[in-house]
Amino acid sequence: MTSPETLKIPAALLPRDGRFGSGPSKVRAEQLSALVADGTTYMGTSHRQATVRNKVGEVRDGLAALFNLPDGYEVLLGNGGTTCFWDAATFHLVAEQSQHLTFGEFSSKFASCVKEAPHLKEPMIIKSEVGTHPLAVADDSVDLYALTQNETSTGVMMSIQRPSGAQGLVAVDATSAAGGLLVDPSQFDCYYFAPQKSFASDGGLWLALCSPAAIERIETLASSGRWTPAFLDLKIALDNSRLNQTYNTPALATIHMLASQVKWMNDNGGLEFSAGRSRTSAEILYTWAEASPFATPFVSNPTQRSNVVGTIDFSEDIDANLIAKILRANGVVDTDPYRKLGRNQLRVAMFPSVDSEDVASLCACINYIVGNI
User: Fold this and answer.
1) Contacts of 325 (CB under 8 A, 6+ apart)
2) Biggest alpha carbon–alpha carbon distance for the chain
3) Any domain includes 78
4) Calpha distance 16→18 (Å, rounded)
């Protein structure tokens, strides 16, 4: 067997850019150039002054345009990423009881946060096997339905729709979905995400697109006397967001790269453009896997296969981890499977920054490796 150190993939087969990580994801060179161009006037300046606040405003306005938010919807942001937002939501989004769809590592984490919150009732949890997703069920006792548009660990995506007859808020974890999958704002009250996936920036920041009903919930719970740490206080985040700032100092480079990516998406046609790029890449990957004698899409239902994170299983006689090592040795990186899933597979990010031609090249590289080991 050829070792990863000695097998060289022909240069003609290699993708122009070999970054296929599910987060942090590929950052476009133009984003970095824009940051460097503004470096001496933007980096190292106060986040309370116009230079940075204008950039935050650019992000908020850009996201409102990208998602075609209805009147009354607002864009909130704060430090800490999605993990922080889950904790914050236990204080100012869930009033008493929530319902959670769990079908992988990340979709289960918000449910765990609620379960451990002493001031909330036991959450209602609806599970399905990995590689599939369950459906929400309307229940009069539920005041918040927690959905996940894309399960990053398994490569399952779901269409976002309000549960029929449901009266509670609909909160959507869109961490790896936002910007790469289509969504109708009328179907959610809170659509939250972080910028290190489709938005090709760094982590440590959360963003939430909130409906008037979600804003009312935040303000009502904030005035209810429920004790909340300031860092997790969504009312504080709301007030600061309206001033185009965060409660505490943000990473300025993260905001700048995020603004560049949102502008790139909007300048080229908005969400139809960015989600279309991911959809094209996904068609290439899954078509290759379905035709392959040694690979197959992990998600059996084609309608649930993610357009932004593809998971591909390999036959038992092929070592997917070895393929990932050989790819990495040749400059094609971060195709490793999600560590806790424990499957013989590769995981391929197809966020909007990834060129579809590079996905096709990746498939050719895998064919070459298998044919030479």
Assistant:
1) 4
2) 66
3) yes
4) 7
